[in-house]
Queue: 4 jobs
Job 1
Amino acid sequence: MFLSISPAKNGGKTIKKMSKSYSNTKATLALAKASFRSIMRSPSAVVFTLAFPLIFILVFGFLGGGGVHVDVAVAPGSDLQNPVIKALENISVIRLVKDKDAAEIRTALEKGNYDAVIEVQRNKAGTPAYMANVTYTSASLDKGNILKSVLNNLLFTLNSKDVRPTVAQLNESTVKGRIYRTIDFILPGQLGFSLLSTGVFGTAFVFFSLRQNLVIKRFFATPVSRSSIVFGEGIARIGFALLGAIFIILIGHFFFKFTLIHGVITVLNMLLLALIGLIVFMGFGFVVSGVAKSESTIPPISNIITLPQFLLSGTFFSIDAFPSWLQPISRALPLTYLNDAMRKVAFEGAGLWDVKHQILILVIWGIGIYAVAVKVFKWE
Amino acid sequence: MNNTNAIISVKNLVKKYDDFTAVNGITFDVYENEIFGLLGPNGAGKTTTLEIIETLREKTSGEVLVDGFSVDREASKIKRIIGVQLQAAGYYPNLNLVELMELFSGLYGVNIRPMEMLEKVNLQDKAKAKYKALSGGQKQRFSIATTLINSPKIIFLDEPTTGLDPQARRNLWDLIIDIRNNGTTVVLTTHYMDEAEQLCDRVAFVERGEIIVLDTPDNLIDNLVSSGFERKKEVKKANLEDVFIHLTGKEWREDN
């Protein structure tokens, strides 16, 4: 009723198969393929690896386009056809807001939405030709100071247009450097975080659930070796995370002008760093899968590992901006070094040898965490 | 069954956990091409015994040979000639049945056509379904299909029919008998005596880690009757399950 194969044929097959030697590579690759398929269909893996980092990149990519701006309101009734306003309009740092009534301007100033208000009137008395009245707000003193120096500079230039300098003449020039955009800071950080969460959460969940649901036990009833199981899973996760990394880098490069100094070489260097980082982070995942008592304890334990690094490893802000007592903690975390190395490689065009210090610290973390993983990892 | 060539030989098998003896000196042989049943209540040591023979568990003492290979020294050789269905085993998440079959063929290092394997257990229509989406009977049939991938000499089935409805149970019996008729030795555990009586060539009763009796179902029943045992109630020519099957039909059902 069920079996269509005759006993003789079946027996013949068995003998032929037995004479062939068992291939660990084939078993490893079969597992890698199965695991990769499974990851691609797992919503949480896709969300953590791709969606979250991309959302952050989108937000910061659009937010931080142009650096510092000073919003200056032009008081109602102010003269608009004068050299001061004209000059201000040509200064990129200053954004002039016109056509607002006095009450609106006042509230915006109090909230700090506008940084100052300026009023320019033709002087009825004759000299000087115009009077400019500026009101700053205590809600935005630093921007006010920027405006103050812009105005001083501007008025000096206007007033001394036809006057020869008597004491000294200021000659200014600017070195032409690469534009360091927000994306150049944010993308490596988000990439690092993506690798961290894929490595920790993904690895922890997979090995815990395979163990809990007796999937691994069923594997042990086949000739597959333990190292094939670990390597097969590892290959799949690394493959998935690196594809994610390429995707993030390309989106960043083509849509947000993320700087890749040496093009493809830079991307390859970044992927190598990603690989090193990911292997270290997967070590944390192995530890979590061994330590967790139930499926619901995996997220909190994983968060204890990922959140501090998310916040303190320079994902969003440079760690130089942290208070000095916090910086040693930041400098102890592996993600700090991955982020640092990624930024150096991508923006400064450093080679892997130039970031050997960062790689060395990652390797030390790796050795430490795998030493723990070997102790706490459970197969059953 | 005249063939008394032992394919599995268990001698004085003992398994101790800290202060608990799960298996306490079991000795038995399984003959080539028979269906051998380990019967007994929960916690009697059936599964532990099975898992030691399957090389999934270390024994405390004793000797176990499977097709001449020792479980201590040649576990990997044993794994290649046996098929194992575990009680409540799960399968890799997010994969459909064909993909799971591909995975197992890689793990066993053999080339199979996944659809052929699924046809053997009548699951070809579920090829693209996930294991989780299968009914109880379908899950068990799929588990049995995974045990056949490496064309094993012996398959082990741990409570294959527990929780199935009568139709699914009978279909599984037919499947198990077909597998045996194709030359495979079958070792199974069960709680159901009617199942053992129908399926097994020989059965061993396990109680508190020991075998209390081992014989063919016929001999065991005859011995009991000859000792003067009588059922309290006159046995009818059919039982309630016969009535159920008769009324609801024995034919295959989509959700079996």
Note: Chain B touches chain A at residues 54-56, 76, 79-82, 84, 86, 88-95, 99-100, 102-110, 116, 119-122, 146, 150-151, 153, 174-175, 178-179, 181-183 (CB under 8 Å).
Job 2
Amino acid sequence: MGIRERLSGNEAVAYAIKQVNPDVMPAFPITPSTEIPQIVASYIANGEMDTEFIPVESEHSAMSATIGASAAGARALTATSSCGMALMWELLYVAASNRLPLALTLVNRALSGPININCDHSDSMGARDSGWIQVYAENNQEVYDNFIQAYRISEHKDVHLPIMICQDGFITSHALANIELLEDDKVKQFVGEYTPENFLLNSKEPMSLGPYAVSNYYMETKKAQTEAMKNAKKVILDVGKEFGEMSGRTYGFFEEYRLEDADYAVVIIGSAAGTTKDAIDQLRSQGKKVGLLKLRVFRPFPDKEIADALRNCKAIGIMDRSESFSGQAGPLTAEVTAALYRYKVDSNIVSYIYGLGGRDYRAEDALEVFSELEDVTVNGKEIEQFRYIGLRSR
Amino acid sequence: MAATDISKITEKSPWQDITEGNQIYGSGTSKAFITGEWRTNTPVFHPDKCTQCLLCTPVCPDSSIPVKDCKRQDFDYDHCKGCGICAKVCPFGAITMKEGQ
């Protein structure tokens, strides 16, 4: 079952795009996501897929053209990173409020400035309130699998929201890894044909899209969007389960790694989860009850599910790979903490910032985090909240 | 999708009744959407001074000066916003503006 390969994260997502063979892909190059449209363009040139590729003049145009294609009735997508996404900003909200089921394969990279091409989550975390579904990956296999599931979630009639498939710049996007691909016919069958009920190019049933909404309509529109986002929770679980039945790899909102009986847990997003698992294995072999919650779906935010998974932990370290300059927590910490409070989970919560602009996060860093969590709980040690991991300091 | 009956989507409609993404199905719905109430100044047509030169009709941004048998009719006040361009363009003083609706 499956096809064994070794691909980088960018190659993996490009291969998934080829298998899904969407109708339209407008894109503009930016490191580290450039390879995705580049590889797709090669597939098209070689006659391996028939997606209409549009080389546009900016990311603002890339997202605008993706929106236009989707509104016209096409299955559309684009790819970007960092400042490219920042230039799409205005249109991210338009795609979501127009309820267009389109996809963005984002390769997470630090936002300028200072200019930096390496991984952190400041680009997508900044866009967390734009109304997009956000799915993150730990490794190349997950990036591939997440993209295959993307349109099934986004195009579901109870959802109709754009979806962002995120992976860590360079760490997964450029590193080769073993991967199991699905057969073309299986992907085709799983994803299915796109048959929108309403679309602009349907001359038999004309329609208008994106009208002005005065104060009397704006809030009702937002409420409908937020309900669609809530509906996405069930759809994400259903699609993840069905994907598992086909591939043997089932997906939910998050992965719990040795978490069931853990006293000390780390909550993290993306590739750093793999490093943390390594530290957990080391500590478990010493008899320490430690575990991990690796968040896959940040939007919609699975608040109750996270609270239930962490309910019995004595201390929780929440790891943010982006700054929000609130002076008290990064976005992941803020939202997880809110969920724990709302669902009455009483635990020691320690906030960390790591990996900004591609700063290494090593197993030793994770070991230190777990050691601090134990120190807080057992010895009541006062520790610095919102600490930068791996920071040089005098 | 059946054409949207915009007369049923009003400022009193619950959020569940607003179409997804405010999409409007069917064509020509702007005709039924009465926007003339936005008007704060109103053009008044004086047929006795009008020469039917029809300079006013094409400059109207809201197509609110109907023409029938090559002759302009009175204003379509359901859609006229009172911008006054027609009054400005008329060489014969056949359109004057008055304050209010």
Note: Chain B has two helices and five strands.
Job 3
Amino acid sequence: MSFVDLEGVSLTYRLGKATTLALADATLSVAKGEFIAVVGPSGCGKSTIMKLVTGLLPPSTGQVRVAGQRVTRPIKGVGMAFQNPTLMPWRTTIDNILLPMEVVEPHKRRFRRHRAEYEARAMKLLGTVGLTDFADKYPWQLSGGMQQRSNLCRALIHEPELLMLDEPFGALDAFTREELWGVMQALWLERRFTGILVTHDLREAVYLADTVYVMSRRPGRVVLRRSIDLPRPRTLETTFEPHFVDIVHELRERIHQEHAA
Amino acid sequence: MSDWRRNALRIAMPWLTIAVLLLLWEGVCVVFDVPEILLPRPTKVFSVFVVRFDILVAFCWDTLWTTVVGFLLAIAGGLLLGLAIGASPFIYSGLYPLLIAFNAIPKVALVPILMIWAGVGALPAVVTAFVISIFPIVVNVATGLATIEPEMRDVLRSLGATRTEILIKVGIPRAMPYLFASLKVAITLAFIGSVIAETVGGNRGIGFLMLSAGARNDTPTTFAGLFAIAIMGVGMYAICALVEKRMTRWAFRGEIVN
């Protein structure tokens, strides 16, 4: 039973008279609790998929279904994290993380009266990403990696069934990025939400995902679906194992074909 | 130079600059024997300040309160209008050209009309201060709203936030530094507005004092009026800057900014 379903979805952007076909005939399905990654050359419409699944953009053709419901407008309560951490500089880290609680039902109604309970919950989450001591700091007092950890916490605090990640580790240095893969995996193993990760880092995709989709050049279409049969939890050691490297190679080859075409 | 001396010098700099300028002025007046009616010496202006202190304070007070009332109304109106323009593209396209057209009108031309409506008194000064200082506030607040990161908006929309919630959670806090930055410009404009109104047709305030002193060829008093306006302007600017720093510490990243 799939949780997220894209059936022959395409999207055409219109800017004045010019039209751009950003995504062509994308079909993919994500099972409940599955973590998938979408990779492809830049400008292939990866981020468009994020907007379509969450209903921020309506598809030009085809249909998107989430939890059996056809998506026609922004669906509620999805967790989202972008490359830009988009934390609010006027809120402390913990207040930033509590933001979804002020917006998502049923927490919204309870938030004021049960603030302490929610704060405890946020602190626990901050603990799992190693930010306990930074709860009362402002985002601009945190490093880029810490900001991105807070961003993940904010995306997960309300325990969404669906988490959308748009190159969340793209702007970080290699060490921090690899460390956060571990953090992300631990969170997923604990909560088993359905995850959709858009990235251009193939190792990241293979490390985190159950299934990797490769997209073609613009107009993007899905050209390869690859199940990742590596046991979990995966570690940084895993990334040096031959099987891991083989899979990355295979994906790399496929993307090379796209660039050559 | 030690840190302490560097710091002391930085604080003393504005005063030193003023002192040097006044000395130069005084010197020029003495050396070239400039007639008082053209350019009174600063010491003369200062003595007028002392001799006529009571009158100056009374007239300053009139100017100050009309300015501040007009300015406060401009904050309230500018905030509302700025939020409306920044939040809705329709209101923006409807009101913005009108606002620019209105801002292009020299405010001095409004005063006679205001006097026909409201007579001579405090009201024309308040209204002129209001209309002249509202523009930068509206533009800045609208800019603050319009420059919200699209990702921030997407995060909130996908959480299920309504437009109003996005406005309250992101829009208004985001617009605050822009609002406070505009206040520093707006308060000086508000002084210009009220003094213009007093000068064109009033029976009160520092503008009226300067005009009537000028008519009596009492140039030192006119200059004393100018100094008084400048002092009030700097004082109000300082208050706005202080409020700005207090209210939007995050926008300065916690640093001390002058």
Note: DSSP finds ten helices and no strands in chain B.
Job 4
Amino acid sequence: MDQPLIQFIVIPLVKIVVILAVLLLIVAYLTFAERKILAYMQVRLGPNRVGPKGWLQPIADAFKLLVKEDLVPAKAEKFVFMLAPGLIIIPALLVWSVIPFAPDTTLFGLLKQPIPPYLTDINIGLLFLLGVSGVGVYGVILGGWSSNNKFSLMGGLRSAAQMVSYEVPMGFAVVSVILMAGSLSLVRIVQAQQEAHLWFFVPGILALAIYFCCGVAETNRNPFDLPEAESELVAGFHTEYSGMKFALFFLAEYANMLVIGSVVALLFFGGWLRPFPSWGWLGFLDIIPPFFWFAGKVAVVIFIYMWFRGTFPRYRFDQLMHIGWKWLLPLSLANVVIVALGVLLLKG
Amino acid sequence: MALGEFFSKLIPTDLFAGLALTGGYFFKKKETIQFPEERVEPADRFRGMFGYDVDRCIDCHLCAMACPIDIIHIRDHTEVDEDPETGKKKKRKVIDRYDVDIKRCMFCSLCEEACPTDPKSVWLTTKTFEMATYERNEALYFTKERLMSWEGVLAYPGAVPPKDGGLPEDPMARKGKGSAAEGGVA
Amino acid sequence: MAGPLEPLFDVEEMELSFGPQHPATHGVLRVQLRLDGEKIMDAKPIIGYLHRGTEKLFERESFNQCIPHTDRLDYIAAPTNNEGFVLAAEKLLGITVPPRASYIRMILAELGRISSHVLWLATHAIDLGAITPFFYTFRERERILDLFEEYCGARLTLNAMRVGGLPYDLPDGWVERCSELIDSLPKYFDEYETLLTENRIWKKRTIGIGVISAEEAIDYGLTGPPLRGSGVRWDIRKVFPYDRYDEVEFEIPIGENGDTYDRYLVRMEEMRQSVRIIRQCLDRLPDGPVMAKVPKVLRAQEGIVYASVEAPKGELGYMFVTTAKSTQPYRCHIRPPSFINLQALPAMVEGHLVADLVAVIGTLDIVLGEIDR
């Protein structure tokens, strides 16, 4: 085989398959983790019957969803109804093409040349990420509308308003990091943190808080889980979905959670870098591969998500908008100004 | 807005208190009882499945009268015993059927309270509560034989139809209890 | 009450049937909503999905046989249902209850009040999105139900009282276990309050929601926490003391604004006051019989009686019309607090959002078993 074929077709294909397989497995186990964490905070044990200590529970759940009857409501808009789960899952998976979860590696010396384990590093990675994940809202709103269910419709509308309005402060929070790193490439942002000997959450603490809040709202998690507010809208936009279509919505939600967790880790906590990357005497920490540093940081973020869910009540729709537009947006704008001034003064 | 209020809104100490509580519970002992393996012993007065003893029963029908929803059906006849030595005749009541329609029972234990014998001939304090069945009409209709075999049995042995094979007869067709019962209110 | 709000500009309104199969309607309540976007223009509660003809049933049962049926009215707090019924029957038959029985009734009723209020908090919080209090409160509720089980053998449908007293005396060690439990309860109440009382999200969701003024509350005939939350100091235990409530000390907490948050605070404080009442009852529990001398067959005189108790949800009253020497009431009427409190729902949710409807249904603390009877 000639070199370009391997380089441009075979290696990316292998990477895609591996990334998707691992991602879906992680997502399945995230549901398990969520149920366990919530249970432990609620003085109970959680799933522990399927397999040893319940570890096969996600597999059983997935199997159940696969074999369940796939219902389509009689008066639903059938084509859109089918389309919506696809519209939401594709962006959620597509985003993973630009997320660098580890630096270039030789796979423990197996390869002669170090290759990047992530799929690609494009120079507008962050913009691509924001744009693609913004498409997911179409799946939500179309799913809610096509179900021909009033509760679903309201869930879809809420979700659309919420996702659109929270993307604005989210974008501004990201801008401050871009200013600090001077690049839109996610790999470059991590490298900038290494060069600056500083994780960006220290100067960007406000940006972190804003991004985190918006991330919670973007992924429809408690306390901003209005689109699927169980007690009001039954299950929101996916009330009428069953079987595999429901599973796709579910997968997308958790995949998006992972994305937010990854972006927080990449932008603010140095991605795959170990703590204090410039301190030589901490070199023994390098024994842990960079991927695990990254995964650990993402895990902490996701644990906090679940912790939130276990603790807080839910905001009302108008209050959520109020927070988005009247608190987070001005704060994020102020943050951009402050960071820009800082960058200007310090870097000269 | 005062500056202090602004910052107190910005730093959510109230939310952190809640997070600390739930986070603390993460490491505490769990309350779950793993049911089939671990069991909670019901209290001594627990009202469980019926127990019945035909030898103690004096056939006074008080339990059937005390029942708010008339689910105890008693059928009896009188036998005359003749003493072979003296030739004296003695009437004796024999209980043919003592049926309880458990599927309608609300476990109020008024029948047990009404029973005049000591110890009680009908009682609910049996600690047996696993009564799930696949077929309610036959499996939860108890004749006296099945009632008497119940005490000490923990799991339901399987759906067994009443001894005579047929469905239980309509309790309202039996005999009216006061004027209201004639209206067929059940 | 003002007429239904008219939309400001030409919009298409949406009719939404909220329930009867809905996770937040606490049973089978159905609310017919007229919505402008998410704003409620008009709400109409529709009831009757759980009608079992309890009042009619009473006409064919003797007095003691009615008591298991009363358990099924407000199935969350059975002791107060029993208590109201036996008080009415005792008033009718002219029976004086021995003091020990009265005190035990009070203990059971207050335990029932706590168990009802913690369940209210659990469902109210889960309606507003906080799922964790649900599990914490059920832990305490289970312990209270354990006490009920030790006393009378049942956990939910107690059938714990009889006309003239109580069917059983307390079992050995019950008093100690009860006092151990109530000593531990305030600590758990504090935990719920840590999660909710100062929480900004909880405050946002409850303050100013479902406001009802004291005058309106009285006009609607509200009782219980919905009335006290509006600042009216009205509690049957104080104004018409029954059992031995005149011998124990307790406060009646009241709110100021009559909103959901005030009603929440009122109920939280009521639980603490209940603990206080139980503590006093346990301390001065007299010896003696638990059953008055009553004939085997209870025969009423001709007459009409009404007796009411302060149930966890409000004033629960029983009225009997009897003919001479009858063993069962000629007509029985139950005044269920939830039914009358539910009347205020349309006025309380008008102009609010759908999410607030859930909060208001939660704060009214309705039980459909009692509403539909």
Note: Residues 165 and 325 of chain A are 7 Å apart (CA to CA).
